[in-house]
TrEMBL record:
InterPro entries: N_methyl_site, Pilin-like, T2SS_GspH. Keywords: Cell inner membrane, Cell membrane, Membrane, Methylation, Transmembrane, Transmembrane helix. It is a single-pass membrane protein. Signal peptide: none annotated. It comes from Aromatoleum toluolicum. This is Type II secretion system protein H. Transmembrane segments: none annotated. The keyword Membrane applies. Gene3D superfamilies: minor pseudopilin epsh domain (3.55.40.10).
Length: 171
């Protein structure tokens, strides 16, 4: 039957030395991985900034079609702040502040800051306008993204570094 002797375990959990060794190993691994995390975060910020600008441009085009009147997309400054407004009467539809994250630089063709979408959804090509917006950063190894605005009203995001003609990211 039962012999009445109970066996108990003397040690449960970790000792202080074992815990300190585990924390030390984790700290070394984290310090090795930190540089790759930084470039990943910067790459993410550039991409999100480009997508924010593309979203604003697409909003301007869709509002021009919906309202059946010309709508202007304007970059307010080099930090990615933009606004979408009707021309006549001048009425702001939407604004966005800080589309470009810290460390992301925006450059447009010939320093243009606006593009007008006509009621047909096409771009008003009779005046100087934004044709492309390049988003870059000083961090090495992070791709530059470009947002292009074509005369037919198409807005697309591409990567100027891609050279393969069959790659959809090619500008």
């Amino acid at each position: 039957m039962l012999n009445g002797v109970r066996q108990t375990s003397r040690h449960k959990g970790f000792t202080l030395v074992e815990a300190l060794v585990a924390v030390g190993v984790l700290a070394v691994l984290a310090s090795l991985a930190a540089p790759s995390f930084e470039s990943t975060f910067v790459r993410f910020r550039v991409r999100v900034s480009a997508e924010g600008l593309m979203s604003g441009l697409q909003l301007a085009r869709s509002e021009a079609l919906r309202r059946n009147q010309a709508v202007r997309f304007t970059l307010d400054d080099g930090r990615g702040n933009w606004s979408v407004a009707t021309l006549s009467p001048a009425r702001t539809i939407q604004t966005s502040t800080g589309a470009a994250a810290a460390g992301v630089t925006l450059t447009t063709n010939t320093s243009q800051t606006a593009v007008v979408f006509l009621a047909s959804g096409l771009v008003d090509t009779s005046a100087a306008r934004i044709e492309r917006i390049d988003l870059s950063t000083r961090v090495p190894g992070v791709n530059t993204w470009r947002v292009e605005v074509h005369g037919g009203g198409q807005v697309r995001m591409c990567d100027p570094a891609v050279t393969d003609a069959n790659d959809r990211r090619k500008c």
